[in-house]
Design a protein that fits this description.
alpha+beta; Spore Coat Polysaccharide Biosynthesis Protein SpsA, Chain A; six-stranded mixed beta sheet; 13 helices
């Protein structure tokens, strides 16, 4: 929350949703409550419901999102506002973001383009980070906010909403990284088979919901293929190669893609080589970063 208050371009309001936290969140927020900071109490029903509670209380034309373990760089809102002013009529703005691991080490890049199309999103060319996203409030309301019917309380609710928002109008991007988000590799490695099956079902539901909007079938097939290939990567991170192969083959049946082929190939490698490939990107690029 502190990074939202320390912006070079001042936030009109900061809404903190305490979703039945067990730490000192409430006390910290209460010490900062003012005409700019509003504390909203959630019901412990997960991130979708918590974000929807914040959206309901927001009064601004644009709404940005920030999870508790992520943060904005001081220029985030300034860069986003400049880009929005350049693109009248845009319904969403996605900024580039920097992924870090639990130790605060940079583990990759998260690039965007100045113009972001629906095809960019559903084909996986651009995967927005929630902490670097701003959406017009009227577009959020028209889409019904974050869908609260997924099996997992957090996982795919953001993708589902960004796709539906992008179907309403133009989306723009900020190419300069202006936010930092944490990738919890340990959590991904320790997910149970039950949790991953739930996540897999949720990811399929995202595609089904997208298809129900009347999207072109070719785009739906590509979205399904990419989604299944990336689901296979979740299985690989959890060291479940048999499940990964099943998901990768399902991806290729939906539509052959390079991502599906590569994921299938990796899932068939010996364990030591497979695990090295899965982790090499993060291990090779990790470097420290400071909270700004």
């Amino acid at each position: 929350m502190r990074s939202a208050l320390d912006q070079s371009s001042r936030a009109d309001e900061v809404i903190v949703v305490d979703d039945m936290s067990a730490d000192q969140t409430v006390n910290r927020v209460l010490s900062l409550v003012s005409d700019r900071v509003l504390l909203v109490h959630g019901e412990g029903r997960g991130v979708s419901a918590a974000r929807n509670a914040g959206i309901a209380r927001a009064s601004g034309e644009w709404i940005a999102f920030l999870d508790g373990d992520d943060y904005w760089r001081p220029e985030f809102l300034q860069l986003a506002r400049l880009r929005i002013r350049e693109a009248a009529g845009a319904v969403a703005c996605f900024a580039a973001a920097v992924p870090v691991n639990d130790l605060g080490q940079i583990i990759g890049r998260h690039d965007v383009r100045e113009l972001v199309t629906l095809e960019d999103l559903v084909s996986g060319r651009i995967v927005p980070s929630t902490c670097a996203t701003l959406v017009r409030r009227d577009a959020l309301l028209e889409c019904g906010g974050f869908f609260e019917g997924f099996r997992r309380k957090a996982g795919v609710e953001d993708l589902d909403l960004w796709w539906r928002v992008a179907a309403l109008g133009a989306c723009v991007g900020v190419k300069k990284p202006a936010a930092v988000y944490v990738v919890h590799d340990g959590r991904d490695r320790e997910r149970t088979v039950h949790a991953l099956k739930d996540l897999e079902s949720d990811r399929e539901l995202v595609i089904d919901r997208f298809a129900a909007t009347g999207a072109p079938q070719a785009l739906v097939r590509r979205a399904r293929a990419i989604m299944r290939a990336r689901t296979a990567r979740y299985w690989l991170r959890a060291d479940r190669p048999a499940h990964a192969r099943t998901a990768a083959r399902s991806s290729l049946r939906a539509r052959p893609t390079l991502e599906g082929l590569v994921t299938l190939a990796v899932s068939c490698l010996p364990r030591q080589i497979r695990r090295a490939i899965v982790s090499v990107r993060r291990r090779g690029r990790a470097r420290p970063t400071g909270r700004m």
